[in-house]
Amino acid sequence: MSTIPESVGPVAGRGSMTPVPHRVVDVVHETRETVTLTLEPLSDPIAAPTAGQFSMLWAWGAGEVPISVSELADDGRLVHTIRDVAGVTKTLCAARRGDVLGVRGPYGRGWGIDAARGHDLVIVAGGIGLAPLRPVVHAVLSDRQAFGHVSLVVGARTEQELLFRAELDGWWHAHEIDVRTIVDRSSPGWSGSVGVVTGELVGLTIDPASTRAMVCGPEVMMRVVAQHLTDRAVPASAIEVSVERNMQCAVKTCGHCQLGPFFACTDGPVLTWDVVESLLTVREL
Amino acid sequence: MVVTTMAEELAAHRFFRLIPAELRERLAGCAKNVHFAPGERICVEGTHASGFFAVRSGRVNVGIYVPHQGLQVLETRHAGDVIGFSWLFPPYRWQIDAVAGEQVRAIELHADCLLPYLEEHPADGYLLVRMFAQEMEETIQSTRLRLLDVYGRDRVHHP
User: Fold this and answer.
1) Searching chain A, which residue's CA lies closest to the CA of residue B148?
2) Across the interface, which of A108, A193, A218 has its CB nearest the CB of B76?
3) pLDDT reported for residue A190
4) Which domains, from first to last, does chain B contain?
5) Which band of pLDDT confidence, cut at 50, 70 and 90, is reported for residue A1?
6) Residue spans per domain, chain A
7) Would you call A184 and B149 a contact, using CB atoms and an 8 Å cutoff?
8) Is residue A12 predicted with pLDDT exceeding 80?
9) What is the CATH number of domain A20-107?
10) Distance (Å, whole) CA B39 – CA B100
11) Predicted ipTM?
12) I need a labelling partner for B90 at 20 to 30 A (CA). Which of A59, A135, A251, B75 fits?
């Protein structure tokens, strides 16, 4: 891929719209079409992101897209997991070590991890939705005693498309959190569950009064999960979802990601279900 | 040791918990506890559907056998689910295969005992068939969602 000249991106006095050049220092091919890039700043780093926030990643000559942070590094590096859905993401997924990308951010409102301390936590991820929730799992594991019972339910199209498989296995074996995986379609050798994610939620013991939930995935999936949880008396205000909208400027200016009175880029992407439920059923929004 | 009656076990199961106690007592007379080892076949496509199963624990893989490919698992049923609609309708033959994915405890309810009673007591029959219809709706909705292929390549999910 073409990369940004390292001189691009004024550091002194740069505005929030100016991408900061970052070098790709590590590339991990997670699945056939998903790649995790580790980026190192070539100048002053951007502010440290929090779990659930996103950056605007700029591929020289291709464009810019919002990508969630999939790991929080404490050395100024950024870790993003990207799915190739054509366009800019295709270019980003083709990045190699040494390439230079532009980064703006971090943007948005992330997961309410602090508010979840002292509660049971149900984390539900579908497909690439596990990427923005991965830092939540890391936060839970680094301070396990601060949380009650923690469940992670992960849905994917197939076993081959399960993200962070080795990590999932490690979390499962460690027994510190209840990890459940379910795929839409089975393949030879798959011994896990087959169906939609709510199939795995049925088996969870949930104390609605002390449960908080974090859900990320396709909007339809989030809808059925939130419905399942509210049917089980989990308050809608205790369910956080990461809304998917067309974010272009990331600074509440262009209006592409407007969702009723909210802008997904600044008011979200993480919003509570009591706030978004009625908006997500408006077909034109 | 705590001894529970079959009616109590039915009351503890998600599927049966909302039905009237009298009907539950009646159903208990048609039920027995069963266990399946991992890999054991619970029902076989084309054979007589002699009743249905209420899963109490473990995982059951439901699918269809494809020649030279083995069981193609289409969905997994868990504790709280029921397996088997074929006992309700002629020709009373299983349309699916079901295999224990792990150690499974279930309650088996026998059609030979249930169907004559439900025919004679249409109010109870209507209630039970409504409950099965709800299960079928949930199964159909799950299938629809998977047909949507929500994790598919042409959809962008999150920022």
Assistant:
1) A220
2) A193
3) 87
4) 6-148 (2.60.120.10)
5) low
6) 20-107, 113-280
7) yes
8) no
9) 2.40.30.10
10) 5
11) 0.84
12) B75
Inter-residue contact A240 to A270 (CB < 8 Å): yes
Binned at pLDDT 50, 70 and 90, residue B78 comes out as very high
Residue B159 to residue A129, Cβ atoms within 8 A: no
| Contacts A264 to B, Cβ<8 Å | 159
Find the residue in A nearest to B68 (Cα): A188
Predicted pLDDT at A265: 86
Average confidence (pLDDT) over A263-267 = 88
Taking residues A176-195, what's their average pLDDT?
Answer: 91
B81: Cβ–Cβ under 8 A, 6 or more apart, which residues? A202, B14, B15, B54, B55, B60, B135
Q: Does domain A113-280 have CATH number 3.30.360.10?
A: no
Interface of A with B in 211-250 (CB under 8 A): 216-218, 220-221, 224, 242, 244, 247
pTM, full prediction:
0.89
User: A239-250 pLDDT, tens per residue?
Assistant: 999 997 888 888
In whole angstroms, give the CA distance from residue A192 to residue A172: 13
